[in-house]
Amino acid sequence: ENSSNKQFAYRNRLYKQFVVKATIHAELLVSLKPVAVHQSLWSEARLVFSLKPIMEPKLYRPPLEVRGMTSLDKEAFTQTITVPALRVSTGVLNKVVKSLKKSTIQRPGVPRVIQDKEESSDFRLVLLDPHRVSSLSSFSEAEAEALRSFSVAEELHYYELKLTYDNLKSEEVLEAVLPQGQDVTSAFSRVGHIAHMNLRDHQLPYKNLIGQVIMDKNPGVTCVVNKTNIIDSTYRNFKMEVLAGEENMVAKVKENGVTYEFDFSRVYWNPRLSTEHQRVVQLIKRGDTVFDVFAGVGPFAIPAARLGANVLANDLNPESYRWLQHNCKLNKAESKVRSFNLDGRAFIQGPLKQELPALLKGKASVHVVMNLPALALEFLDAFRGLLHQETPTDENLPTVHCYGFSKNDDPDTDVVKRASCSLGFPLENRCSVHFVRNVAPNKDMMCVRFILPKDVLYCSDDEHTGESVQQ
Ligand SMILES: C[S@@+](CC[C@H](N)C(=O)[O-])C[C@H]1O[C@@H](n2cnc3c(N)ncnc32)[C@H](O)[C@@H]1O
User: What domain range is 28 assigned to?
Assistant: First the structure.
């Protein structure tokens, strides 16, 4: 009864806009309608029945007509909602806004303070978050105290706020458009100006709209692509389809302080590997030599060269090789990197075999990086008997960092077993295994690190049987 008519009307409107979820004991079925709009009854209901109201942020839900839209019509998202506001003198405006940080409206593109049309220019309206503030009693003790101390009138005003497409978040737009009850995703990976998504079948009819929304809502994204499931198994790049924006696939990214440029549709690049690149590069010192067997566009090779290592970097994909050379120049590392466009096995049995004998006589460390997780473990057999014509030495043997995927329950044991089998030498207790990342449910990317055994490098042809290894 003590509510003003205006407040009552506001609550009524709020009731219609909110979805009120209540946990009610089965025997205590109550009619929520009249209760929800009247505060004193509402408190009573809470007291008596322990109802737990949860206000969900449905107030910003776009008009229902947008459901099923496949071509983006931004105008259709425009609506007017009622939000509470406080009338505040300009003299204390900044302090009040600061004190009410948690209660003011927070929407992209919506101002928190607006000109109070009805009053003189000495006052402004501070717009409040309708999910947090439904009456004066919604303010916390500290907020209420601040309002008193700044002599803000204890009265809620109601402001008709026009919300447009620009004020909505991408999830809100997509949730309103895509079929109800089905998974809505606005997740994407960012590679320079390109956002790449992995849409499910039920999202495909909306693919261009999804692309447009992602582009609109993410500054700097000027191209959105969908990664189809077809992976080019040789070069590890995905087939992709442009959903929105310019069809410019040449991306520029920065990883661990190094700049890379490449055609994202024709080479391999994964922004989720930056920590792994850094982890390995940190083990490399000035003067070391690095053989990068599957170098891609250079994320191990170039940082290592910049640290002062001598690098031999190889990739079978002619496009990767081209961008690798480009990135060496871009980062002024070309004097430290020799690049090759060979099959990994040919690289090991060619340039690596040629360089290794001299390096083994030196003091600086030698690293071999093999990041082709789908196949690299199988390439380890290329080291068997590689130097069998040379005089064996124990000194300065190379450290190999070899990657592998595993779907095994015990991925550590699995990758060590497969590496041992390929080398023909048991690596158990002679290597370390690092979990890199989970790439899919039940599929892990691992890195096995070991000193290349002398027995493998110098074994003669008839020892290439791998008999010592249990398969
Ligand atoms: C998983 S990517 C890794 C690229 C880079 N090292 C990185 O960390 O981003 C593997 C790379 O191996 C290359 N590749 C695939 N098969 C190859 C082979 N048989 N010999 C040499 N390179 C190969 C691909 O073109 C691709 O660039």
Answer: 20-55
